[in-house]
Each structure stands twice: as C-alpha cells, then as structure tokens.
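Need ER membrane protein complex subunit 7 beta-sandwich domain-containing protein's 3D structure for a figure. Predict it.
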Amino acid sequence: MPVLLALLWLCHLATASLTISIPPSTHLPNPHVLPATTRATLTTLPAAGAGDRDPTHILTTSLTRGSTLVFRDIPAGHPESYLLDIRAGEYVFAPYRVDIAADGSVLGVWETFRGNPWDNRGAEKYVVDVAGKKAADVVVEAKVLGRKGFYEERAKFSPLSLVKNPMILMAIVALAMTFGMPKLMENMDPEMRAEFEQQSRASPLTGATTNAMTGGGFDLAGWMAGTAPSPMASAEGAREGATGREAAGSARKRG
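Structure prediction for ER membrane protein complex subunit 7 beta-sandwich domain-containing protein:
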C-alpha cells in the first residue's frame, strides 16, 4: 500500500508540460512547411554513476500538426536544468535553458548561448510567478535564427555588370575620344583651332611623348650619369626655339 501511494504521488507530480510554439517570422513565414522530422530535445547531465542508462537526462518530442513541440509529463523528483534544442532540416533555432522544479513544474525559460557559461542567460521567455500559482502548461515561442544554405547561388548575367567593369569603362572613354575629338575639331572655330594646335605642339608632354615614340635621340644612360639633358629640358628648349622664331617673324612683319 505505501508503495502504491508513492507511485500515485509521483504520477501526480509529473503532470507539468512545456509547449514550444513556432510563430511565423521573417526567416520562416509559414511554420507549416517544416518537415515532420523536426524534433526538440531537453538534455541535462545524467545522474552520478548512471551514464547513458539514465533515460530522464534526454527528453525528445516531435513536431505536431499545429507547428508545436510539446513535452508532456516532465519527470519530477529533484530540480533539473535542461538545454532545449530544436532541430529542423533547413532552419536554425535559438537554444533555450529550461529550469524544472522538484515537483516537475517549469521555473523559467531563457535564451542561452553556446560556448558560454551556463549561468550566462539571455532574454527571458518565461519565469514562474512566485506569489501566484504555478502554471501546469507553459507555452513559449521558438526563435528562428536563420536558414541553412547548402548551395551557392550561381551569379546571373547582367548588362550592368559590364558597365561596372573598369576596363570596359576605359575602352568606352577611349572610343569616345577617338570618334568624338575629330567631330569637335571640325566644329571648332578656326582661330581657336589654330591656337589649340599651337599649344599642343608647344606642350612639353607632347614633345616628350613624340621623342619617346620616335626614339628622339634621348640618351638614358647619359641622362642618369648627368652628362645628357633630360627630355623635359629638350622639350623646353624646343618650345623656346619655336617662341623665338615666332617673335622674329612678328618683328620682320612689323619692319
């Protein structure tokens, strides 16, 4: 008789349940698309010396049609602290810490963080009201962290990607200069065109470029040794000579 009463007392204690609901979210707009293989586990350290033979240190439940995970008749007897894990095929859920009292009721549910101390609790999901009556059925909402990516999306071709390429932009600018400059020169005023050509011929960069393209008699070894003038000095001398000839021509015209 005492043994029967003890069993009835234990069955009366093990009446608390924990329900995890999966609400719609940004990563999971429709929770009903979750596969039937979605499972939740409550894991705690086994009793001393029991090892894997203790069946109460791992509790498992499956997904219901209402997109909920229900742990019924949580074992009672002594306080326990469980790690709640939800495993789905393509989605990642946040782990929770669940504290159970000696009578099997849920004391509190908090977010937890892997790789951190167990006492480092995150956001609070449920805490028992000490002044009020303990709830027999506790309902908390699961948090979806993201969706697993098993495949890398292939890059799609876009004409705008060609415009973003620096080499393509340089080629477009070069073509515009090649075909656009002659048109600009044709539409330019004759006096402005003559002035532009004169400045182009007298430019030191133009002279240096011409000498580099034609050879120009530039002695690189002599210039490095300091015995030959630099190409810029040669260009300056050529420009001064051209300026002197123009001045002499103007003087002859005045005379």
